[in-house]
Amino acid sequence: MKRIHCYLRGLRGTIVSLLYATSAMAASPTDMPPMLHGDIWVNYSGSYEFGSLEENGDTHGKRQLHSENVDYGIEFSPITGVAINIELPTTMYLALAYPDAIEMIYEPVTGSGTYAFDDPLGTKPIHRGLGVNGVWFGAAFAPFSEAFKRRQQVTWRLDLGVRTGSKKNLWTVHDDMRGTSPGGTAVHIGAAFSAKKGSANPYMTFNYIYEGKVTADAVDENNQVVASGLTFKPPSTVDLRGGLEIVSFYDPQDESLLAFDLFLGFGYNSWSDVPSGLFLPSVLDASRRIAVSTSDYLTASAGFGIVGHATKFVGIETSFMTRYITPHRLEHPYPIRTGLDTVELAWNLSVTGKYR
Question: Mean of the pLDDT values across residues 80-105?
C-alpha cells in the first residue's frame, strides 16, 4: 500500500496516502524492490480543508478540517515481480471545527431544521481525534517491468490490500477524544503504469478503496450515548492521477537522483452513512438517533513534488497538493451543503530506506 495511500486523510475518504518511493530512473508509483530485497519507510502527511456551509444559496458559517498523520511501512520482494507489504497508518492530530457555528432551528413548514435565522450557537464546536487507523496487508505484482526485462517499454504495478477494522474509530469517543479509523475492514485495488522516456517519465495511477460497514454507538457533543448499535458506512473512494516525473540529475555510479513531479488528479467519494452532528455544528435531537446519509461528490486536484536520492539506499520525497471538492449534502435530513469555496491543501514528506 506504500505508493497508494496519502491525501485522502481526515473525515472524508478517511485515510489514504499517495506517497511514492522512487527507484533510480523509474517513475515512482511503479517502483518495486528486486528479488530478496526490500524497502522500509516513514511518511508524514498533513491536510487542511476549509469552506462554507450553505443553505438555499446562502452562507451560514464555516467548517475547517485539519489532520496530521504518520505512516510506517515495509515491503519485501520474495521473487521477481512480486512484493508483499505491511503499513501502519496513524493520525497524530485530527480536528473538525466550526468557528462561527449557527444554531439549527426546527422549520415546521418542511419538518426539517434550518440555519436561516442565523442565531449564533454560542459555542465553537470542535471534534478532535487521534489513533491508529487499522493495519494494511498488501501484495503487489509487476507483470511488465522495464527494470526486469530490457525489451519492456512500460512498467506496471498492480496492488491488492486489506485493512483491519478498529473498535476505536471516528464514530466513537473515548476520554473526550474520537478515534480516526473508518472502523470497518477495507479492500484496496490499485494499478500504476509508467514509462522511461529519457529525462521525462510519465505515469498514471488508479486506486479504489471499498470501506466496509461498522456498528457503533452514537454520542452527542457531551459524550453521552444517544443511540446504540447503529450501522455506519464510511465512503468508498476512487482516485485517478496522471503525472510527469522530470529527472534533472542522475548519477549512475551511486544512483543519486534529483527529480520533480507534476501531477493532476480526479476522485470520487461515494455516499456514506454517518452519525448526525459530526459534519454539522448543530442538529435537531431527533436525527441523532439514526444514521444519516452524506451525498457523494467529485474532487479535482493538482500538485507538485520533489524526489531526491543521496544514494541508492536512501530516498526522500516531498509534495504539495491542492484539491477542489464539489458541493455535497452533509446530512440527508437537512438542506445544508458544502459551499463552492471548499478546498483542501495537502502536504507530504517521506523517507525511505532501500535494501537494493
Answer: 97
